[in-house]
Amino acid sequence: MSVTPEEGPAYLPMPSSVAQYVPPLLPDDAELRQAGEIWLDRIERALTAYKPGAPQMLDLREAPPAASRFLKEVLGSGEVSALAMGSPDLQVEETIFAGLWRVRGEGVDYLEVGDVPQVLRQRAAAPVMKLPDPETIPDDVINAPHVLAEIVARSERFMATGETHNFNLDLVPMSDADLSWLVRTLGEGDVVIVSAGYGSCRIRSTHLAATWWVQFSNASNQLILNSLDIAEIPAVACAALDDIADSAKRVRAVRGMYQ
């Protein structure tokens, strides 16, 4: 596991700019447009039908080559991307339509409408952690065990009640040894998320239930906030219900270009 004491765990490369919605240009090719119109209708209906807790999925493995090319051009790339490690490894990318995600991997290719794809929740699942034996803690690690005890307690509370919490580690006095020990103890989970929606944000699951590293960086990729979120998925990575409703309207407007 890669550990940088000043910054916490290692992550995917940061995006270089913040994504903003720009209506897509439809391909000039008549065959692509004809194939794509059918899929835009399916996507609009999926976005419109979405309700929290009831994701809508469209399997793209059945899409003909023309439709695949159309969707690649029209859906584009949005603010959030992720890697869900496992069998198989899955690449997740939000499209320019918030709340519409593309999930791809070996033998896998589908669109999902939701706040985040369900696979991120599934791959991030972790057990409640037992606190380490005090005798195993190095002598130069002073404050981190107390922080970990509070994190574990908050994790257990979330699992019981759903109460979220945020730990701003910049406000906690910890040495490099403390932070390195905390990173090693929490471990690195199977989900990595990069978001450009609220500045540059890097997120990684841990080996503790509902516990995530959440770090914000400035335009120079310098860390400006180092925190731990106790939540099913950190809110910064999620599409809001209003955004999904807006995406339905935007897809409808794109379909209107055919009229």
TrEMBL record:
Pfam family, one: HupH_C
Domain HupH hydrogenase expression protein C-terminal: 40-121, 141-254
Family note: Belongs to the HupH/HyaF family.
Protein name from the UniProt record: Hydrogenase-1 operon protein HyaF
Top-level lineage group: Bacteria
InterPro entries: HupH_C_sf, HupH_Hydgase_express_prot_C
